[in-house]
Amino acid sequence: MKLSRRQFCMTGLAWAGAAPLLATGPASAQQLKGGILRVAVLSELANFDPQQLSTVNFHVIKNLYDSLIEYTPEGKPQPSLATEWKIAPDKTSVSLTLRDGVTFHSGAPFKSDSVLATLQKGADPKRGKNVFSTMSIVKDWSAPDERTVVINFKAPAPERQILDLLQFLIPIEAKGIDTVETVPAGTGPYTLVSRAVGQGLVLKANPKYWREKQPIAQDLVFTVFSEDAAATAALESGAVDIVYNGSSRSAVRLKGAGYQVFAGPGPLVQVFRINSTRGPFRNKSFRQAFNHLMDRASILRVGYAGMGKVVALPWAPASPAFDDNYTKTYAYDLEKAKKLITASGLSADEMKGWKLLVNGSDEASVAISQIVQGSLQKVGVPIDLDMRQGAEYVTALLGGDFAATFGAVGNVQKFPSRVTTNSIYRTSGNPILKDPHPHPDYVAAIARVDAAAGGETEVKAAYDNLNRVMVEDAFGIPTNSYDVGLIVASEKIGGITLDIDNLFVARTIGFK
Amino acid sequence: MTEALAAVRNLLRRLLARRGPALSLAFLALVALTATFAGLLPLDPLAQSIADSLKPPSAEAWFGTDELGRDILARVVYGARTSLVTAFGAVLIAALIGVPVGLVAGFYGDWRDSLLMRCIDVLLALPNILFAMALIAVLGRSQGAALIAVGIAGIPGFARIARAQVMALRQLDFVMAVRSFGGGPGYIMVRTLLPNILSPLVVQAIVLASIAILLEAALAFLGVGVPPPTPSWGEMLRTGKSYLYEAPTYAVLPGLVLTLTILSFDTIGRALTAILDRDETDASGATIGGRR
């Protein structure tokens, strides 16, 4: 789409005015200058494999790699390395046209062989990592020519699910696929210069990048800070230009001090995870009481400085299954909670004797767990907190060694069944609830969503059914969404682009 | 034992004659009394009021409120219980194990001395904080675990002081006299030697109490101390540091109380050491450890 000069100017002005407030879209690239962009991050990346996506490498993936397609912050698909995608009328395959004139950092041209190699890796249970579960709908794939790839599905797949797959697929150069953990092998706007483990990372602009006039900044320097306060102090002293993925509390404070704060459309949802195979949690009515025991407003305020939204379902507002009515219906109400506890028929002794597992390394989790502990005390269920640190907590969380705990879930803004990538919501091989799944209604509801490839009515009915089953089975009690990948930038920075997954996109960022 | 009590009373009187130790004693007495009788005060350290979170000091909440709207003063007062219980418990454990070890090692001075002191050397070789964290990893996070960890870390101090004192006393006339009257090793160690080494052990107890309070706070600060919502000064420091911009009193006031408490213990310990050193200098060659 071409813009007239008037349209261009009006658009630029609109972005300039709205960006800091609405946190959307980049400023006009023409207004921005290049230079060295210095970014403070709070975590050391694990490796360069884009299929091992986690918050610790959110700051590098979209700078070293491109995905097949991208989403706008509103969730609309946009071309990236795939210029076109045609979903077959029966929704059993998708044909991709690959972009011409793109090269990998090694200088090799981007062709279909690399997409095939990437699909092969993603479908491998050992090498596919985070992508593997998303590949479960894929039957096989082929490359009729160098610029075309066809992916076939096991059954008709909903369009949104197909698009999520394409957005999640990040082509890796075929010959670099075995060494991608240590040597990045992408087509992204920046190339790796050096990495000092525990200290930081230096990238430089890819001179052969396919997007016109991008990246804007010539050099990109990431510095790892172990303390949020140290990172914000570096920003305030001018030692860095941006803090990425800092705390909500710091972001609120810095926003008040005049810094720009950008929150992406891909939040996490905090979920009170219940092990429904243990003790009083086998009782459905007792579990349902927790829908009303969550003081969501207080949890959001104390844990996340009010940045986010209270929710009773594990969806972000951008999710097609999002339904705000549930938040009102299942609001904090101790009287309703007491009635459900009474209806459970459990004795006082039966309701006690369990501990709330807490991630002691996460201040927000410690605070919000105490809020729940206080609510339980008020309804006559006194419990203790089981504080565990770091790896010890993660082992207990992922191994299901807990009665109840808070844990965030991701992929909450995409196709609803993507929620099953989170351990508590897995429909098979669930490490907490084990097999056979104790909530067959939930498993059936997810299957119905996956099979709803028909009209809007059918799809909505499937989503409504899933939402109803989730609150009734009550083995996961969502409390609030919160921002991950928050960007706090000095006023001289412009051109922030928000990614659907809140990954850090540096290519459009420059200096005003 | 009456003689020993009289010596302690004498020490107390001489401490109170100095301004620094007297102020320190007064402060510690205030902390101990408020901690002991906290239940009688209109303070609830657990009552949450999220709407009132992170409020500055006011007439309603003298020290302000924390992130959950709890009264920081109430948590400081009840946090003193955690610190003092840990300190006294740790001193008790360290003394009950360390003093007998030192008595036996010092009295016999043979292979038993070598064996026991090598065990003490092993304990000494382990950094206190690492040892405590390892023990808590095994026992789980609780006040009891912190208390035991700090107590075990304090054993070497008592053992070495007791051993050194006993070695200095065991050949003196009053001990030989008891032995010539048929006193057995157990009688001599407990009834003859122990009362005469009490003063340096009291000093060591005071020093260890301050170390124990600091170590308990350090463990809580590192996230392995007493689990919340039980108030703990170290836990308050740990959480409060995240709110330094919004509520500086949250971390500063518990930190100040912690600092003053440790400073008070330390001041008293130093004063006692000075008094005992002067006694030794003033005394004749046969009088050691306050015995005249």
What's this entry about, in short?
The complex is a heterodimer of chains A (512) and B (292). Chain A is an alpha+beta fold and 512 residues long.
How would you characterize the overall build of this protein?
The complex is a heterodimer of chains A (512) and B (292). The longest helix of chain A is centred in the first third of the chain and has 18 residues, at 5-22. Chain A has 16 helices and 23 strands. By secondary structure, chain A is an alpha+beta fold. Chain A has helices at 5-22, 61-64, 112-123, 129-134, 159-168, 228-237, 248-256, 284-293, 296-304, 325-329, 334-344, 348-351, 363-378, 390-399, 440-451, 456-473, and strands spanning 36-41, 69-71, 77-79, 82-87, 93-98, 138-145, 148-153, 190-196, 200-205, 219-224, 242-244, 260-262, 268-274, 308-310, 355-359, 384-388, 404-409, 476-482, 487-489, 493-494, 497-498, 504-505, 510-511. The model of chain A is unreliable at 1-27 (pLDDT under 50). Chain A starts with a helix and ends with a strand. In chain A, strands 8-9-10-1-11-19-12 form a seven-stranded mixed β-sheet. In chain A, strands 14-18-13-17-15-16 form a six-stranded mixed β-sheet. Chain A has a four-stranded antiparallel β-sheet with strand order 4-5-7-6, with helices on one face. The radius of gyration of chain A is 23 Å and the shape is globular. Chain B is mostly helical. Helices cover 72% and strands 0% of the residues of chain B. Chain B is built from eleven helices and no strands. Chain B has helices at residues 2-16, 19-36, 72-108, 111-125, 128-139, 143-169, 173-180, 185-196, 198-221, 233-240, 248-282. The longest helix of chain B has 37 residues, at 72-108. Chain B is elongated and about 75 Å long. Chain B starts with a helix and ends in a 10-residue tail after the last helix. Classes of the chains: A alpha+beta (512), B mainly alpha (292). Chain A binds chain B through residues 228-229, 247, 249, 253, 295, 298, 301-302, 360-361, 363, 366-367, 370-371, 373-374, 384-389, and chain B through 46, 48, 50, 53, 67-68, 141, 223-224, 227-229, 239, 241-246.
